[in-house]
Amino acid sequence: MNKLIQNEMMKLIAKKRLIVIALIIGVLVTLFTYAQYKQVQTQREKLGTSDWRTILQQQIIDTTNRLSSSRMQDEWKKQLQISLKQQQYYLDHDINPAEPGAPTFMRIFLENSIDLFLPLMVMVIASDLVSSEHSLGSIKLLLTRPIKRWKVLLSKYITLCLAVSLVVAITGILSYLISGIVFGFKGWGAPILTGFNVTETGLNTSEVKLLSLWKFLLMDFGLVWFVSIVVGTLSFMLSVLIRSTAAGMGVMLAALISGAILTNMVSSWETAKYLFMVNLRLTDYMKGTAPPIEGMNLSFSIMILFVWWAAALFVSFFVFTKKDVY
Amino acid sequence: MEKNITLSVKDLKKEIGKREIIKGLTFDLREGEVFGFLGPNGAGKTTTIRMLVGLIKPTSGSVRICGFNLEDHFQDAMKNLGCIVENPELYPYLSGYNNLLHFARMLEGIGEKRIKEVTELVGLTERIHDKVKTYSLGMRQRLGIAQALLGEPKVLILDEPTNGLDPAGIREMRQFIRYLAEKEGLSVLVSSHLLSEIQLLCDRVAIISRGTIIRVDTVEHLLANRERVVWRISPFEKGKQLLSSLTPIEVKEDGTILTEFNEQKTPEWNRQLVEAGVSVTEINRKMPVLEELFLELTGGDTIE
């Protein structure tokens, strides 16, 4: 089995996928770092001070102003009210919500890349793992060795898991290093609030507690990794089912983008919560943002993703071991 | 002396949907022989070969490689088999050596020594560390063979091995296959849609059409009495009358005459023509083309 994984790794490296992905991540992190830097600067200019309390107060005033607008949709309003309460809570307890520093940037970057950017990167690796062997024709050589088919597929899947872990690690390392140059590398111990519960009556702060940022980040990374594995497994299944890499990528891309769109508009279509793509923003539960559909929470989303993962894995192995290769 | 049977196929069938593609094939391969699998495109050659190498599951029937049933003892059976199905599709982004390493890792106990051996055998030593995408088609074909030979198989299955090769490449490939069978004692199964190729390469041939084997025989038997001679003579009428008095003839539209080929009689006919004052501008031995052979064997059944 080790030798098979070595083979898959050799092919993956020769295809230079990981390097391309690392480059993309590097470029994006640099862009975001610059954007964040600009944002901090303009805020400072506007308020004439770098004191975060004034900034937070300004934000609260902004939010209140927006809330008083009558043309606002109900769900949007609810969300704003919740974030208003959060901001108020930070202010009352003298906690800086965006403690500047590389770890904070990392957290923000992770939270924003969990539902689209990282899944896309993972998809780039996963979606041609099997289908490229088909389009190349090398599948015929691969399956005419004295090795059972499920072992061949398992070696590919393990390779995928390793590659996904590597991509998540690269994301963490690059976002820390690049943003650290601008914002400084400190801030691991900064306190951050978590445990907000959004219920039907609004924000429930009874379980709110303070966490060190590094603990929070560790949890974030766990969630990001889990989401990436699930998305990777789904792309892997499509790669087994659809021979053309482009078609497989297209289907997965459509699913991911529709997820991003759906989360903004499905609050009245309740059964949509069983779709995997509206459950990808796991880190939002840690922050206490309102879920797209009522009744969704962290364990629910993890369960849904787990079911999709298991089904995709089963389908992949079932089809791969049974199907005739032409 | 009956030689060992290395590949045994019994009543192999394949249905796709309700259509029966392969309708019960039975044949054996013996040690050290080159066995031709001859049929037009669409006769079921590739489907059959894919069933022999485990890519397609047969609907019924059995394939035994060196005594191991392919379905029940896949690993043991495949250890004795090397194959190229259609073109040898190796990884273009890896070097030739890494390709061989890749497939050696999938076999037990095959290491660098054997990789070096097969590289030398197919004459790729100089270019083995170059990327496969820089290889010519002939080199890819040779690398494909090297890959198939890695596990020291008893049976080698090659699907259209000369496809896309230039004449020199075809000759080289032919000699190599003969060498493997005669000197290394491999059983080689070669598929082709070209009768001429099979004739030069194989000891025995199975002719397949529409998913059934029409005939299995040695090449000599198959082609016996089927060779023709093309005559171009003048004056035409006189020559025609003389020839038709000697043997049944067939007049072609382009002004040539066809007769059967007979080792003893054909020179005799020529002599008689010359003596009668007919000048012979062309005598040409002609192999039957596959289509004609088919027409004869199937009794007018056309190729799909």
From TrEMBL, chain A:
Origin species, per record, is: Neobacillus novalis
- Output the lineage of the source organism: Bacteria, Bacillati, Bacillota, Bacilli, Bacillales
Mind telling me which GO cellular component terms the entry cites? plasma membrane
The identity of this protein, by name, is: ABC transporter permease
Q: Name one GO molecular function term.
A: ABC-type transporter activity
What keywords were assigned to this record?
Membrane, Transmembrane, Transmembrane helix
For this protein, the parts annotated as crossing the membrane are 18-37, 157-178, 223-242, 249-269, 298-320
TrEMBL record, chain B:
Q: Which superkingdom is the protein from?
A: Bacteria
Q: Name one GO molecular function term.
A: ATP binding
Where are the annotated coiled coils located? none
Q: Which Pfam families match?
A: ABC_tran
Domain named ABC transporter: residues: 7-235
* Database matches in Gene3D superfamilies: P-loop containing nucleotide triphosphate hydrolases
Annotated InterPro entries: AAA+_ATPase, ABC_transporter-like_ATP-bd, ABC_transporter-like_CS, P-loop_NTPase
Per UniProt, which keywords does this protein have? ATP-binding, Nucleotide-binding, Transport
| Protein family (similarity comment) | Belongs to the ABC transporter superfamily.
Protein name, UniProt field: ABC transporter ATP-binding protein
Recorded source organism is: Neobacillus novalis
